[in-house]
């Protein structure tokens, strides 16, 4: 099914509101003996807003294969936990050293560095424990749970966001050459975005070929997403972004914009967005949402 901008926005908001309402309720799943301050620090960042892109991708991918949102929700929330953990750590003084995230003071500004590190660590572990417990209890086939969680784990580790963050922040790991920003974006951003759709699809019942098509979709979408992120860092304000703009230049990062300039980066993002759509062209279910999303993310302003 093809979507107009309006119908796409409605679908995106609907899934976003579903995720938002369930995230608000999840605090109850963190009872004592989790120390109150740790709980506060975790819930502060988890409920601070954001686009909720990753859980939406996961819910929607499972839906293509007939799984309803209620069943795939624990996996989707796990992805938002991983993403939030990575943002808490990314903002730390030892990394990006930022004071603003999602329009609010960063976690370490409010809770201190030690708690922020621990909140990120705890969230990362919870991101696995929560879906494993909930999905097994909801009678989802064990082989699908295993495959979905394997994909999730891969995205967090040396081949995923940790590796990507090293490339992005460790001066000795930086490389010359036009393919470096592609390499950083693939690991830092696209692997997690891709894992959301691939594992959502796998959980929903996709076969290997279909899950692979969604993985390729996510890798291209993630590359386009990072390109636009680099553009917005240069062209947007703190109010629009909810985070401090202009940081890439002050930190001498090798971004798409610093290497290719704004116009060329915009064209590259369009190309990646088209490749994303192409990757899922053979899928039998209704992929209209994913096609529309690919175009929407290139035009996004926050
Ligand atoms: C602790 C899990 C864990 C990882 C440690 C710190 C780190 C390794 C990785 C960070 C990688 C990173 C900051 C990638 C940037 C990805 C990105 C483009 C984030 C912005 O995503 P949006 O725009 O944010 O979707 P919202 O706030 O809307 O959710």
Could you say which structural class the secondary elements and strand pairing correspond to?
mainly alpha
Estimated radius of gyration: 18 Å
Mind telling me the CATH class?
Answer: Mainly Alpha
CATH homologous superfamily title: Farnesyl Diphosphate Synthase
Number of domains: 1
Helix proportion range? over 70%
Shape: globular
Termini separation (Å)?
26 Å
Largest sheet: 2 strands, antiparallel
How many helical elements? 14
Strand order of the largest sheet: 1-2
Strand content: under 5%
Descriptive account of the structure:
The protein is mainly alpha-helical and 302 residues long. It has a single domain (5-299), classed as Farnesyl Diphosphate Synthase (Orthogonal Bundle), CATH 1.10.600. It has 14 helices and 2 strands. The chain has helices spanning 5-25, 36-46, 53-64, 69-90, 107-111, 113-137, 142-156, 161-169, 180-204, 208-235, 238-241, 247-250, 256-279, 288-299, and strands at residues 100-101, 104-105. Strands 1-2 form a two-stranded antiparallel ribbon. A hairpin with a 2-residue loop joins strand 1 and strand 2 (104-105). Helix 3 packs across helix 9. The protein is globular, with a radius of gyration of 18 Å. The two termini are 26 Å apart. The structure holds geranylgeranyl diphosphate (GRG).
